[in-house]
Amino acid sequence: MSGFKHRAGTAFLFFMVVYMQNPVLARELPPGTRSRTMYGKVVDTKTDQPVFEAIVSLIGQNDMVACNRHGMFSITIPAETACTLTVVKSGYEQTTITVEPGTTGTTSMVLLKPLSVHELPKLVVNTSRIRQPITTSDRISQISISPELSAKLPSVGQADVFRSLQLLPGVNGTNESSSGLYVRGGTPDQNFIALDGMPIYYVDHFYGFFSAFNPKAIDNVTLHKGGFSSRWGGRLSSVVELSSSGNSVSPDSQGVKAGVGTGLLSSNGFLQIPLRNNDVGTLMFAGRRSMTDLYRTDLFNKLFNRMHGTDTMSTRKTDGKYYEDAERLAYQPEFKFWDVNGLATFRLGSRGKLATTFFASRDYQDNSIDTTWSVRNSTPVTTITYLPGDKKHYTIDTLRIDTTTKTTVIKNKSPVYWGNICIGQQWKEQWSDAFSTGLNLSYSQFLDTKTEDYFRSDSRSERFSDTTSPIDSIFGAVSWMNSTNKIRDLSGRFDNSITFSDWNTFSTGVELSLKNVSYHRDTMQTDTNSLEWKRSLVWEQPTPMRRNDTSITMAVYAEDELKFGDKAGLTPGLRFYYFNLTSAYALDPRISGWWQLLPEVKVKGAWGLYTQEIHRAEQEDISGGGKYIWLLTNTDLPLEKSQQILGGISWEKRHFLLDVEGYVKRMSGLLTISERMRTTPVPRIGQPFNPNELALFEGTGFARGLELLAQVRNVRFPLASKNATYNGWVSYTWSRAENTYAAFNNGNPFPATNDHTHEVKVVNSFDWNVTTWSSITLGAVWLYSTGTPYTTPLGVYTLVLLDSTLNRSYMYVSDKNAFRLPDYHRLDLSVAWQVCLGRHVKGSLTMGLFNAYRRENILEKTYSSSTIGDNGGEITSGNETTVFTAIDKNAMLLMPNAALELTVEF
Question: What is the pTM of this model?
Fold first, then answer.
């Protein structure tokens, strides 16, 4: 602890020294500078709102840049001469500005006047060719991605922004069962997902094949893979900023915009209404609903079979050996989901804004079983008679033929539903060019509920030919389970930003949050109406499990963004937490910076400490796969903490970007749940052994890696057409993620479940404007990854307490994650045809192939167990052996999909 306080004190002292010396540093510009950086902000003269995607170019040169979502831009220009910049944007008058010598670093306000409706040209420029698919920032590990990109790239039935993020380096892209982000050795719960500032805790739809965010409702996505600002806290790995459509006003559509679309899994619609031509504000609504409960397409059947197609019944032949019964469990799946986005933005004068955001999503899944089968065997009863004194010759006489009929009925109903309900209120006021204030209030709720009702009846009828009536017996079993995991988060945030000079912007803020996390589980064990069966069992009737924690958290942050001319930048920051539930505090110093080594080469770096109070503990389940439980830090559970060191270098030109980054990350306070590790009743963190409490184990993590991104953007293909452009990138990630738990592997490190040593992603998008009213987009994505680590069972042991209150069998397994699945790779293809059906109507048809060359990837291994007698004989006490059968959960093979959309602008 002393070392931590020393590092924190040193970082804070450095922060204060740099801040106090800032006025001197800001005025010292290097003499003889041959180039300079021009900073500016482009705003609408009518609404005083920033204009995003405006193109700023230097007359006489090929350099051009696009404004970000805040209307900001920076461009390198000659230092000794006056320069003229041109600013263009569809729907506005073209504007030129002159920059005189000696104005290095000055931030200029560029005003764009909107064109009236009758002044708009008939041919609208396709700005998607100018907007970059992915863009980087001066801050290390910060990448923005265009939501339109998700519609151009292949997908599993649905366009999805989170699947597009998984194509970036440092983010695992081969997990087909979750759209959550595994960033640099972290897990999805370690990502702060903010929709207009509201925290979102779970993002999966439909077995995790795509996220709960409708691309039509999202305007901009920014991913901070590490080293993020002191403004953000409460998570260890990354921050995902999502901005709702309508937050950034685009003059391209002064009227109402509406659209509908449908695919093989769901249908969606959206509506955007500018209030008085955006003078008052904007209303946006978007909704999406699955069609799988109304009709089941071939795509749905393939997805379901991928999840359950290998499940079989196990039974025993008459020779005592086990085999997999050819008759599958008769599943009757029911699955449906929906999500809704809403936004109401109102302008408060020329500089203020008030916005209300709403988001809700819900998934319902029930993999019900209702199956019956019968087996009938006829057994002859014979006598053998030997001739007197002759043991080689005998006669066989059949006395009778007995008939045994066994009927098995299994009914299982296991509904599962999960979802989010979130509402947020934002107020922003730009009091002057130098000072702004923001207030965010939000309520976010996540609910995950599982229920299972199981019934089994085995009726046996034995009919003997020498008796008048059959002998009937019935064996029955019923059980049920109900669990609920719920998060409620009420948060408030107050931010302030003041610009002292062109080189110094200071930000500070305070946050308060009230979090409640509960986990309830009720279970009833097997029952039967067979007295013989009852006598053979040792009964255990656990009490319901209850966890309910509430915490108030306060956080205060401050950071200073410094720029030393156009050559370097430094952002020191500090974040302080107080957690009332544990009376604990945390002090997280952070610092990031960049240095313009050469005109096109930039060096970046960051260091920081990060704290997280909410956990998503992985529940190890060798037989059925992993499950997760959300828990809140309390007096028994530690805070999660991490320390990160990042460094990188980038080379950027107009059409090319090469970015290399490396990182080291240490984590503590990680949690896992493992019933199989209860080998002895040993207390954990002062708690006595209790089978009705979660078997929680605490550990640490260590992740390191190297990432490379090579991007080509907006390159023309003259051999095809002057209207054809190519965008794409290649990324490579080398990484190692290891965890250490005292209870596993004798305390030695082992690969984390999300560890992938090598990962390669090749992304291609080819846009061709065939005519003035139609275009075609071809997409291709190839992914490769080292196989996922997994644990395999080796045997079974039984734990019996001295007072005989517990008799439970546990699985004896290999070292944690000692094995790896085969390497994963696949190719996805897509083609999209966009047409303009008149001036106000646009349509698109997208078709794709997932896993085009039918690679048989294995995503997960689960195991079923069977008990047999020695040498395949009958089971008696003490002679039984448990045999495990591996069940591979395979990835999808060749999977076609299609989607149709129609957009209308009034």
Answer: 0.79
